[in-house]
Write a structure and sequence with these properties.
Layout (H helix, E strand, L loop, with lengths): L5 H21 L5 H12 L1 H15 L1
Helix pairs in contact: 1-2, 1-3
């Protein structure tokens, strides 16, 4: 079995975080400020993955 790369783990984290956001939005106690912070975190997963990929390409 192939070991997971950091990028694979980051993708799993991103998917888990998106599920968490969806669950939080359904909650009656949902706080709009907290949801805004969660969106910022979610939106930064993709640039982080791109940066890691560039770093890995540079090292190879």
């Amino acid at each position: 079995m192939k070991s997971k790369t950091f990028n694979d783990r980051l993708t799993e984290m991103q998917e888990s975080f998106e599920k968490l956001m969806l669950e939080y939005q359904k909650d009656d106690r949902c706080n709009s400020d907290a949801l805004s912070y969660m969106r910022v975190i979610r939106d930064n997963f993709h640039p982080l993955k791109k940066l890691i990929n560039k770093k890995n390409q540079f090292q190879n």
